[in-house]
Design a protein that fits this description.
Blueprint lengths: L2 E4 L3 H12 L4 E4 L13 E3 L3 H6 L10 E9 L5 E12 L2 H14 L3 E3 L4 E7 L4 E6 L4 E2 L3 E4 L6 H5 L11 E9 L7 E7 L2 E7 L5 E8 H5 L5 H7 L5 H9 L1 E2 L5 E6 L7 E2 L2 E3 L14 H20 L5 H27 L5 H12 L2 H11 L5
Parallel strand pairs: 1-2, 1-10, 2-6, 4-12, 10-18
Antiparallel strand pairs: 3-5, 4-5, 7-8, 8-9, 11-14, 11-15, 11-16, 12-13, 13-14, 17-18
Helix pairs in contact: 1-3, 1-8, 8-9
C-alpha cells in the first residue's frame, strides 16, 4: 500500500481521488459508512472548481446552489450586504461526500468502512508506518495522511498539544425549507456568544448552522431548544427563521469541542490536512474549500515522495511550507475576525462600521479566501 488516508471528509476524499489518479495504491479508513450528515456550513468557494474538474468530480450534477451575495446581521438585526467577488456554491455534505466517495471507488481506492484507526507509529527502519485498526487489522503504508476532522482520539495518541486544551465551542446544524429565502445569498446572523449561517443547498433545501459556546448552552439548562428561544431569537432574522421554516429532521446534528487553536501540518511523519491541520472560524465561510485545497497540497507532496523525487524529510518540509504559505495568514485573520463578534455591543459597532466601508468587507473576504487552483 502506498498511501493510507485516515478520514473520509473532503480533504481525505480529494486526496484519495488525486493520488489514485496519479497511479498510486490508495486506501482510506472512515468511521462511518456513506452517506451521512456532518456539522458543516455547506458553502464552498468557487476557488475549488478547477481542481474538482481535474479530479473528474465537477459538482454540477448534484444540483448545487449558485451563491453570489453575502449578508451579515448584528444581534439587533442591522444588516450589511455585499456581493461575493468569486462566489460559491451550496451543497450538503451528505450529497457531496457520497459523490466523491463513489468517484474514488471507481478510481480504485480501497475503503475500510466503517473503521477506526487505533494507533499510528512510524517504523524508521522499514520506512513505513505501522497502523492498527480497532478491529485488530494492521496496515503498513508508505505514507499516511491525517484527514480525520477537527478532533479525534488519534490526536491524543499523537500527543498533539491542542487536544489537551478544552475548547468552549459547539456547532449545531439543521436542514430546512424556507419559502422566499433567496438562493443566491449566504447570510450570517450574529447573536450573543455566537453566530448562525444560512444558505441554499441542493433540492430546494437550506443549510442552517450555528456556532456558540457551552456556557450559552449551560445557562439555559443544557437544552438546545431553550437556548435557541432565549438567545438566538433575540436577532429578528433568526427569530423569523425559527418561526417560518420547515425543519427537515427532528434533532440537529451537534459537535462539541471545536478548537481554533493552531495545529501543526505534520505530526510524527503524518501529513495532516483539512480540519486536522487547522480550522478556520466558520464566520469566514471557507473551511470546505480549504479542506479540498489541503488535500491537493498533501497529494502533490506525497506523489513526489512516492516517485522518489524527494526524500521523506523533503516531502514533510515541502508540505508544511506549502500549507503554511497557503493557509497560515487566513487562519490568523479568521481568529482575529472571530474576536470582533459574539459580544452584542462590539458586534453592533462592527456591523455598523462595515456597512459604511464596503472596501473593508471585500478586503476581509480576500484575506480569508484563495484564488482558483
Amino acid at each position: 500500500m502506498d498511501v493510507l488516508i485516515i478520514g473520509g471528509g473532503l480533504a481525505g476524499l480529494a486526496a484519495a481521488l488525486d493520488l489514485a489518479g496519479r497511479g498510486h495504491a490508495v486506501a482510506l479508513a472512515e468511521r462511518r459508512p456513506y452517506p451521512f450528515h456532518r456539522v458543516c456550513g455547506e458553502y464552498v468557494s468557487n476557488e475549488v472548481l478547477p481542481y474538482l474538474a481535474r479530479l473528474g468530480a465537477d459538482p454540477a450534477p448534484l444540483g448545487v446552489a449558485d451563491i453570489r451575495r453575502f449578508e451579515l446581521s448584528s444581534p439587533a438585526g442591522r444588516v450589511l450586504r455585499s456581493p461575493l467577488d468569486l462566489g460559491g456554491f451550496g451543497v450538503s455534505r451528505y450529497a457531496l461526500d457520497e459523490f466523491l466517495y463513489r468517484r474514488a471507488l471507481a478510481a480504485g481506492v480501497q475503503f475500510y468502512l466503517p473503521a477506526t484507526v487505533a494507533s499510528v507509529a512510524f517504523d524508521a527502519a522499514a520506512g513505513r508506518h505501522a497502523v492498527a485498526l480497532a478491529d485488530g487489522r494492521t496496515l503498513a503504508p508508505r505514507v499516511v495522511l491525517g484527514a480525520y476532522g477537527k478532533r479525534a482520539n488519534l490526536d491524543r495518541q499523537l500527543d498533539r498539544p491542542f487536544f489537551r486544551q478544552r475548547s468552549p465551542y459547539l456547532g449545531v446544524k439543521y436542514h430546512l425549507r424556507l419559502p422566499g429565502h433567496a438562493r443566491d445569498v449566504i447570510a450570517l446572523h450574529n447573536f450573543r456568544d455566537g453566530y448562525a449561517g444560512i444558505s441554499a443547498i441542493e433540492d430546494g433545501k437550506l443549510c442552517f448552522c450555528y456556532l456558540t459556546t457551552r456556557t450559552n448552552l449551560k445557562a439555559h439548562g443544557g437544552t438546545i431548544s431553550a437556548m435557541e428561544k432565549a438567545v438566538l431569537h433575540r436577532n429578528p432574522h433568526l427569530r423569523a427563521i425559527f418561526h417560518e421554516a420547515e425543519f427537515l429532521y427532528p434533532q440537529p446534528e451537534v459537535i462539541n469541542e471545536i478548537s481554533f487553536a493552531p495545529k501543526q501540518p505534520v505530526e510524527q511523519h503524518v501529513l495532516m490536512c483539512g480540519d486536522a491541520a487547522g480550522l478556520i472560524t466558520p464566520l469566514c465561510g471557507n473551511g470546505m474549500a480549504m479542506a479540498l485545497h489541503g488535500g491537493a497540497l498533501a497529494s502533490a507532496a506525497a506523489h513526489d515522495f512516492l516517485i522518489e523525487k524527494t526524500s521523506r524529510t523533503q516531502m514533510e518540509a515541502a508540505y508544511a511550507g506549502a500549507w503554511r504559505a497557503q493557509f497560515g495568514a487566513r487562519l490568523r485573520v479568521g481568529r482575529a475576525v472571530q474576536g470582533l463578534f459574539g459580544g452584542p455591543v462590539l458586534s453592533e459597532a462592527v456591523v455598523g462600521a462595515l456597512a459604511h466601508w464596503p472596501g473593508a468587507v471585500q478586503a476581509l473576504m480576500r484575506r480569508t479566501h484563495g484564488a482558483p487552483f
